[in-house]
Amino acid sequence: MTTPEDTPLRRVLPLYGAGFVTAFGAHGIAAGLGGYLGGAHASLLTLGILLAVYDGAEVVLKPVFGSLADRIGPRPVLLGGLAAFAVASAAFALADDPALVGLARFGQGAAAAAFSPAASAMVARLSPASRHGRAFGRYGAWKGLGYTLGPVLGGALIALGGFALLFATLAVLAAAVAGWAALAVPAAPPLPRTRQTLLDLARRLARPGFLLPTLTLAAATAAVATGVGFLPVRGAATGLGPLVTGVAVSLLAAAAALVQPWAGRARDAGRLPDRIGTTAGLVLAAAGFVVAAAVPGVAGILVSAVAIGAGTGLVTPLAFAALAAGTPPERLGQTMGSAEVGRELGDAGGPLLAGGVAAFAGLGAGLATLAAALLATAAITAARRKTTV
Q: Any idea where the Major facilitator superfamily (MFS) profile domain is (predicted)?
Protein backbone atom coordinates (compact mmCIF):
# COMPACT_ATOMS: atom_id res chain seq x y z
CA MET A 1 0.00 0.00 0.00
CA THR A 2 1.20 3.54 -0.70
CA THR A 3 2.68 5.14 2.37
CA PRO A 4 2.50 8.83 3.32
CA GLU A 5 6.22 9.23 2.62
CA ASP A 6 5.93 8.29 -1.07
CA THR A 7 2.51 9.72 -1.98
CA PRO A 8 3.18 12.14 -4.86
CA LEU A 9 1.39 15.46 -4.99
CA ARG A 10 -0.54 14.53 -8.13
CA ARG A 11 -2.33 11.78 -6.16
CA VAL A 12 -3.34 14.16 -3.37
CA LEU A 13 -4.47 17.06 -5.58
CA PRO A 14 -8.03 15.68 -6.04
CA LEU A 15 -8.50 16.02 -2.27
CA TYR A 16 -7.75 19.72 -2.59
CA GLY A 17 -10.20 19.81 -5.47
CA ALA A 18 -12.88 18.38 -3.18
CA GLY A 19 -12.23 21.27 -0.78
CA PHE A 20 -12.70 23.69 -3.67
CA VAL A 21 -16.02 22.06 -4.60
CA THR A 22 -17.61 22.48 -1.19
CA ALA A 23 -16.38 26.08 -0.80
CA PHE A 24 -17.37 27.11 -4.32
CA GLY A 25 -20.75 25.41 -3.97
CA ALA A 26 -21.51 27.01 -0.62
CA HIS A 27 -20.59 30.60 -1.53
CA GLY A 28 -21.41 30.54 -5.22
CA ILE A 29 -25.04 29.70 -4.53
CA ALA A 30 -25.43 31.65 -1.30
CA ALA A 31 -24.25 34.89 -2.91
CA GLY A 32 -26.99 34.71 -5.54
CA LEU A 33 -29.90 33.35 -3.52
CA GLY A 34 -31.30 36.74 -2.59
CA GLY A 35 -31.69 37.84 -6.19
CA TYR A 36 -33.00 34.44 -7.29
CA LEU A 37 -35.71 34.38 -4.65
CA GLY A 38 -36.51 38.06 -5.02
CA GLY A 39 -38.44 37.33 -8.17
CA ALA A 40 -40.64 34.96 -6.21
CA HIS A 41 -41.19 37.64 -3.50
CA ALA A 42 -39.64 35.40 -0.88
CA SER A 43 -39.32 36.76 2.63
CA LEU A 44 -36.04 37.37 4.43
CA LEU A 45 -36.98 34.50 6.73
CA THR A 46 -37.17 32.17 3.73
CA LEU A 47 -33.80 33.41 2.56
CA GLY A 48 -32.30 32.85 6.00
CA ILE A 49 -33.64 29.30 6.13
CA LEU A 50 -32.27 28.47 2.69
CA LEU A 51 -28.88 29.91 3.62
CA ALA A 52 -28.83 27.87 6.82
CA VAL A 53 -30.00 24.51 5.44
CA TYR A 54 -26.64 23.74 3.79
CA ASP A 55 -24.69 24.39 6.99
CA GLY A 56 -27.37 22.67 9.07
CA ALA A 57 -27.00 19.46 7.11
CA GLU A 58 -23.23 19.62 7.60
CA VAL A 59 -23.46 20.21 11.35
CA VAL A 60 -25.70 17.18 11.86
CA LEU A 61 -24.06 14.77 9.43
CA LYS A 62 -20.32 15.49 9.44
CA PRO A 63 -19.60 13.49 12.63
CA VAL A 64 -21.69 10.62 11.25
CA PHE A 65 -19.84 10.47 7.94
CA GLY A 66 -16.51 11.04 9.68
CA SER A 67 -17.09 7.94 11.79
CA LEU A 68 -18.19 6.03 8.69
CA ALA A 69 -14.92 7.01 6.98
CA ASP A 70 -13.01 5.42 9.86
CA ARG A 71 -15.13 2.27 9.64
CA ILE A 72 -15.02 1.58 5.89
CA GLY A 73 -12.12 3.81 4.81
CA PRO A 74 -12.27 7.49 3.75
CA ARG A 75 -11.94 6.94 0.00
CA PRO A 76 -15.41 5.39 -0.58
CA VAL A 77 -17.01 8.12 1.55
CA LEU A 78 -15.13 10.77 -0.44
CA LEU A 79 -16.23 9.35 -3.79
CA GLY A 80 -19.80 8.73 -2.66
CA GLY A 81 -20.14 12.25 -1.28
CA LEU A 82 -18.84 13.86 -4.47
CA ALA A 83 -21.17 11.71 -6.56
CA ALA A 84 -24.14 12.63 -4.35
CA PHE A 85 -23.24 16.33 -4.66
CA ALA A 86 -23.21 15.97 -8.44
CA VAL A 87 -26.60 14.21 -8.42
CA ALA A 88 -28.23 16.81 -6.13
CA SER A 89 -26.90 19.64 -8.29
CA ALA A 90 -27.91 18.00 -11.57
CA ALA A 91 -31.41 17.24 -10.29
CA PHE A 92 -32.08 20.89 -9.57
CA ALA A 93 -30.51 22.00 -12.85
CA LEU A 94 -32.93 19.74 -14.71
CA ALA A 95 -35.97 20.77 -12.68
CA ASP A 96 -35.06 24.51 -12.37
CA ASP A 97 -37.93 25.01 -9.93
CA PRO A 98 -37.45 27.65 -7.21
CA ALA A 99 -39.61 25.59 -4.86
CA LEU A 100 -36.98 22.83 -4.92
CA VAL A 101 -33.94 24.97 -4.12
CA GLY A 102 -34.16 24.16 -0.41
CA LEU A 103 -34.19 20.43 -1.09
CA ALA A 104 -31.27 20.79 -3.48
CA ARG A 105 -29.28 22.79 -0.93
CA PHE A 106 -29.94 20.17 1.74
CA GLY A 107 -28.79 17.44 -0.62
CA GLN A 108 -25.61 19.36 -1.40
CA GLY A 109 -24.98 19.99 2.29
CA ALA A 110 -25.48 16.33 3.18
CA ALA A 111 -23.10 15.30 0.38
CA ALA A 112 -20.49 17.85 1.49
CA ALA A 113 -20.84 16.48 5.04
CA ALA A 114 -19.60 13.18 3.62
CA PHE A 115 -16.72 14.17 1.37
CA SER A 116 -15.36 17.11 3.38
CA PRO A 117 -14.24 15.21 6.53
CA ALA A 118 -13.20 12.25 4.37
CA ALA A 119 -10.95 14.56 2.34
CA SER A 120 -9.45 16.06 5.52
CA ALA A 121 -8.79 12.59 6.93
CA MET A 122 -7.11 11.48 3.69
CA VAL A 123 -4.96 14.63 3.60
CA ALA A 124 -3.62 13.54 6.99
CA ARG A 125 -3.43 9.83 6.12
CA LEU A 126 -1.50 10.41 2.88
CA SER A 127 0.97 12.92 4.33
CA PRO A 128 3.70 12.20 6.88
CA ALA A 129 3.36 14.00 10.20
CA SER A 130 6.37 16.13 9.28
CA ARG A 131 4.40 17.62 6.34
CA HIS A 132 0.92 17.94 7.85
CA GLY A 133 1.19 21.72 8.04
CA ARG A 134 2.08 22.01 4.37
CA ALA A 135 -0.66 19.58 3.34
CA PHE A 136 -3.38 21.35 5.29
CA GLY A 137 -2.05 24.71 4.14
CA ARG A 138 -2.56 23.66 0.52
CA TYR A 139 -5.96 22.17 1.30
CA GLY A 140 -7.04 25.39 3.01
CA ALA A 141 -5.72 27.48 0.12
CA TRP A 142 -7.85 25.55 -2.37
CA LYS A 143 -10.89 26.03 -0.16
CA GLY A 144 -10.02 29.70 0.12
CA LEU A 145 -9.87 29.89 -3.66
CA GLY A 146 -13.37 28.41 -3.78
CA TYR A 147 -14.64 30.97 -1.28
CA THR A 148 -12.98 33.77 -3.27
CA LEU A 149 -14.20 32.72 -6.71
CA GLY A 150 -17.60 31.41 -5.64
CA PRO A 151 -19.51 34.72 -5.55
CA VAL A 152 -17.77 36.07 -8.68
CA LEU A 153 -18.09 32.99 -10.90
CA GLY A 154 -21.47 32.12 -9.41
CA GLY A 155 -22.78 35.58 -10.29
CA ALA A 156 -21.39 35.31 -13.81
CA LEU A 157 -23.00 31.90 -14.37
CA ILE A 158 -26.33 33.14 -13.03
CA ALA A 159 -26.14 36.15 -15.36
CA LEU A 160 -25.44 33.88 -18.33
CA GLY A 161 -27.93 31.09 -17.72
CA GLY A 162 -29.71 31.50 -14.41
CA PHE A 163 -29.48 29.25 -11.37
CA ALA A 164 -29.90 26.17 -13.57
CA LEU A 165 -26.53 26.89 -15.22
CA LEU A 166 -24.83 27.39 -11.85
CA PHE A 167 -26.17 24.08 -10.51
CA ALA A 168 -25.29 22.31 -13.76
CA THR A 169 -21.74 23.64 -13.51
CA LEU A 170 -21.49 22.39 -9.94
CA ALA A 171 -22.75 18.98 -11.04
CA VAL A 172 -20.07 18.75 -13.75
CA LEU A 173 -17.38 20.03 -11.38
CA ALA A 174 -18.23 17.54 -8.62
CA ALA A 175 -18.44 14.66 -11.09
CA ALA A 176 -15.09 15.64 -12.61
CA VAL A 177 -13.40 15.77 -9.18
CA ALA A 178 -14.99 12.43 -8.26
CA GLY A 179 -13.60 10.86 -11.43
CA TRP A 180 -10.22 12.46 -10.85
CA ALA A 181 -10.15 11.15 -7.27
CA ALA A 182 -11.20 7.66 -8.38
CA LEU A 183 -8.26 7.54 -10.79
CA ALA A 184 -5.59 9.29 -8.75
CA VAL A 185 -6.21 9.00 -5.00
CA PRO A 186 -4.70 5.82 -3.54
CA ALA A 187 -6.65 3.47 -1.32
CA ALA A 188 -6.60 4.16 2.40
CA PRO A 189 -8.14 1.04 3.97
CA PRO A 190 -9.71 1.25 7.43
CA LEU A 191 -7.20 0.75 10.21
CA PRO A 192 -7.72 -1.65 13.10
CA ARG A 193 -9.61 0.04 15.91
CA THR A 194 -10.28 -0.75 19.50
CA ARG A 195 -13.92 -0.81 20.52
CA GLN A 196 -15.19 2.63 21.53
CA THR A 197 -18.27 3.40 23.60
CA LEU A 198 -20.11 6.71 23.54
CA LEU A 199 -18.50 7.54 26.87
CA ASP A 200 -15.05 6.89 25.39
CA LEU A 201 -15.88 9.19 22.49
CA ALA A 202 -17.13 11.93 24.81
CA ARG A 203 -13.97 11.71 26.91
CA ARG A 204 -11.71 11.86 23.87
CA LEU A 205 -13.48 14.85 22.36
CA ALA A 206 -13.48 16.63 25.73
CA ARG A 207 -9.68 16.64 25.93
CA PRO A 208 -7.79 19.89 25.30
CA GLY A 209 -6.04 18.27 22.34
CA PHE A 210 -9.38 18.31 20.52
CA LEU A 211 -11.23 21.19 22.13
CA LEU A 212 -8.53 23.85 21.81
CA PRO A 213 -7.71 23.40 18.09
CA THR A 214 -11.44 23.15 17.38
CA LEU A 215 -12.08 26.32 19.37
CA THR A 216 -9.45 28.18 17.35
CA LEU A 217 -10.93 26.85 14.09
CA ALA A 218 -14.38 28.03 15.18
CA ALA A 219 -13.01 31.46 16.08
CA ALA A 220 -11.18 31.79 12.76
CA THR A 221 -14.28 30.77 10.82
CA ALA A 222 -16.37 33.23 12.84
CA ALA A 223 -13.91 35.96 11.89
CA VAL A 224 -14.10 35.13 8.18
CA ALA A 225 -17.90 34.92 8.15
CA THR A 226 -18.27 38.19 10.05
CA GLY A 227 -15.71 39.94 7.88
CA VAL A 228 -17.37 38.81 4.65
CA GLY A 229 -20.81 39.75 5.95
CA PHE A 230 -20.16 43.00 7.80
CA LEU A 231 -17.14 44.71 6.22
CA PRO A 232 -19.31 45.73 3.22
CA VAL A 233 -21.90 47.11 5.65
CA ARG A 234 -19.22 49.03 7.55
CA GLY A 235 -17.81 50.39 4.29
CA ALA A 236 -21.22 51.49 3.04
CA ALA A 237 -21.88 53.23 6.36
CA THR A 238 -18.76 55.36 5.80
CA GLY A 239 -19.73 56.26 2.23
CA LEU A 240 -17.84 53.61 0.27
CA GLY A 241 -19.37 52.09 -2.84
CA PRO A 242 -19.93 48.42 -3.66
CA LEU A 243 -16.76 48.23 -5.78
CA VAL A 244 -14.49 49.11 -2.85
CA THR A 245 -16.35 46.88 -0.41
CA GLY A 246 -16.25 44.03 -2.93
CA VAL A 247 -12.50 44.48 -3.26
CA ALA A 248 -12.20 44.33 0.53
CA VAL A 249 -14.00 40.99 0.70
CA SER A 250 -11.82 39.63 -2.10
CA LEU A 251 -8.70 40.85 -0.29
CA LEU A 252 -9.78 39.06 2.86
CA ALA A 253 -10.29 35.76 1.05
CA ALA A 254 -7.11 36.15 -1.01
CA ALA A 255 -4.98 36.94 2.06
CA ALA A 256 -6.29 33.83 3.82
CA ALA A 257 -5.62 31.67 0.75
CA LEU A 258 -2.07 33.00 0.30
CA VAL A 259 -1.03 32.80 3.95
CA GLN A 260 -2.17 29.22 4.58
CA PRO A 261 0.47 27.39 2.49
CA TRP A 262 3.21 29.62 3.97
CA ALA A 263 1.99 28.96 7.51
CA GLY A 264 1.91 25.22 6.87
CA ARG A 265 5.45 25.17 5.51
CA ALA A 266 6.73 27.29 8.41
CA ARG A 267 5.12 24.89 10.88
CA ASP A 268 6.70 21.84 9.27
CA ALA A 269 10.11 23.55 9.27
CA GLY A 270 9.81 24.24 13.01
CA ARG A 271 9.69 28.01 12.53
CA LEU A 272 6.05 28.45 13.59
CA PRO A 273 4.92 26.45 16.65
CA ASP A 274 1.19 25.73 16.79
CA ARG A 275 0.56 27.67 19.99
CA ILE A 276 2.44 30.78 18.90
CA GLY A 277 1.05 30.75 15.37
CA THR A 278 -2.60 30.30 16.32
CA THR A 279 -2.35 32.90 19.08
CA ALA A 280 -0.73 35.40 16.71
CA GLY A 281 -3.33 34.69 14.03
CA LEU A 282 -6.25 35.30 16.38
CA VAL A 283 -4.68 38.52 17.67
CA LEU A 284 -4.09 39.72 14.10
CA ALA A 285 -7.70 38.97 13.13
CA ALA A 286 -8.93 40.77 16.25
CA ALA A 287 -6.79 43.77 15.32
CA GLY A 288 -8.47 43.77 11.92
CA PHE A 289 -11.89 44.15 13.50
CA VAL A 290 -10.63 46.90 15.80
CA VAL A 291 -9.36 48.79 12.74
CA ALA A 292 -12.68 48.26 10.96
CA ALA A 293 -14.56 49.64 13.97
CA ALA A 294 -12.26 52.61 14.61
CA VAL A 295 -10.84 53.74 11.24
CA PRO A 296 -13.33 54.99 8.64
CA GLY A 297 -12.78 55.13 4.91
CA VAL A 298 -10.91 53.08 2.35
CA ALA A 299 -7.74 52.63 4.40
CA GLY A 300 -9.58 51.23 7.39
CA ILE A 301 -11.63 48.66 5.50
CA LEU A 302 -8.76 47.45 3.30
CA VAL A 303 -6.28 47.14 6.18
CA SER A 304 -8.87 45.33 8.28
CA ALA A 305 -9.65 42.91 5.44
CA VAL A 306 -5.99 41.98 4.97
CA ALA A 307 -5.46 41.58 8.73
CA ILE A 308 -8.53 39.37 9.17
CA GLY A 309 -7.63 37.23 6.16
CA ALA A 310 -3.97 36.85 7.12
CA GLY A 311 -4.84 36.09 10.75
CA THR A 312 -7.34 33.38 9.90
CA GLY A 313 -4.92 32.02 7.30
CA LEU A 314 -2.38 31.50 10.06
CA VAL A 315 -4.82 29.70 12.33
CA THR A 316 -6.49 27.22 9.98
CA PRO A 317 -3.64 24.94 8.81
CA LEU A 318 -1.97 24.98 12.23
CA ALA A 319 -5.17 23.94 13.99
CA PHE A 320 -5.92 21.15 11.50
CA ALA A 321 -2.33 19.90 11.68
CA ALA A 322 -2.52 19.89 15.49
CA LEU A 323 -5.71 17.84 15.34
CA ALA A 324 -4.10 15.34 12.96
CA ALA A 325 -0.94 15.11 15.06
CA GLY A 326 -2.87 14.35 18.22
CA THR A 327 -5.38 11.87 16.74
CA PRO A 328 -4.89 8.12 16.35
CA PRO A 329 -4.87 7.42 12.57
CA GLU A 330 -7.81 5.06 12.89
CA ARG A 331 -9.96 7.89 14.34
CA LEU A 332 -9.04 10.69 11.91
CA GLY A 333 -12.40 10.74 10.14
CA GLN A 334 -14.31 11.00 13.39
CA THR A 335 -12.05 13.77 14.68
CA MET A 336 -12.14 15.80 11.47
CA GLY A 337 -15.92 15.44 11.18
CA SER A 338 -16.41 16.58 14.77
CA ALA A 339 -13.97 19.48 14.36
CA GLU A 340 -15.82 20.61 11.23
CA VAL A 341 -18.94 21.00 13.38
CA GLY A 342 -17.01 23.56 15.42
CA ARG A 343 -16.20 25.45 12.24
CA GLU A 344 -19.84 25.47 11.16
CA LEU A 345 -20.91 26.76 14.57
CA GLY A 346 -18.33 29.52 14.30
CA ASP A 347 -19.57 30.33 10.81
CA ALA A 348 -23.03 30.97 12.25
CA GLY A 349 -22.05 32.26 15.69
CA GLY A 350 -19.66 35.04 14.62
CA PRO A 351 -22.17 37.00 12.55
CA LEU A 352 -24.87 36.38 15.15
CA LEU A 353 -22.68 37.80 17.91
CA ALA A 354 -21.59 40.86 15.93
CA GLY A 355 -25.06 41.45 14.53
CA GLY A 356 -26.79 41.01 17.88
CA VAL A 357 -24.58 43.60 19.57
CA ALA A 358 -24.78 45.90 16.55
CA ALA A 359 -28.58 45.90 16.72
CA PHE A 360 -28.43 47.56 20.14
CA ALA A 361 -25.11 49.44 20.22
CA GLY A 362 -24.10 50.04 16.62
CA LEU A 363 -21.94 48.18 14.11
CA GLY A 364 -18.66 49.45 15.57
CA ALA A 365 -19.56 47.92 18.93
CA GLY A 366 -20.53 44.67 17.26
CA LEU A 367 -17.19 44.38 15.48
CA ALA A 368 -15.33 45.31 18.68
CA THR A 369 -17.22 42.61 20.57
CA LEU A 370 -16.11 39.98 18.08
CA ALA A 371 -12.55 41.29 18.41
CA ALA A 372 -12.82 40.80 22.18
CA ALA A 373 -14.04 37.22 21.66
CA LEU A 374 -11.08 36.51 19.38
CA LEU A 375 -8.67 37.95 21.94
CA ALA A 376 -10.23 35.79 24.67
CA THR A 377 -9.74 32.71 22.48
CA ALA A 378 -6.15 33.79 21.83
CA ALA A 379 -5.54 34.03 25.58
CA ILE A 380 -6.89 30.51 26.09
CA THR A 381 -4.75 29.22 23.23
CA ALA A 382 -1.62 30.92 24.55
CA ALA A 383 -2.01 29.16 27.90
CA ARG A 384 -2.65 25.67 26.50
CA ARG A 385 -0.40 22.67 26.90
CA LYS A 386 0.30 20.11 24.20
CA THR A 387 -2.25 17.33 24.65
CA THR A 388 -3.25 14.47 22.37
CA VAL A 389 -6.76 13.71 21.31
A: 11-388
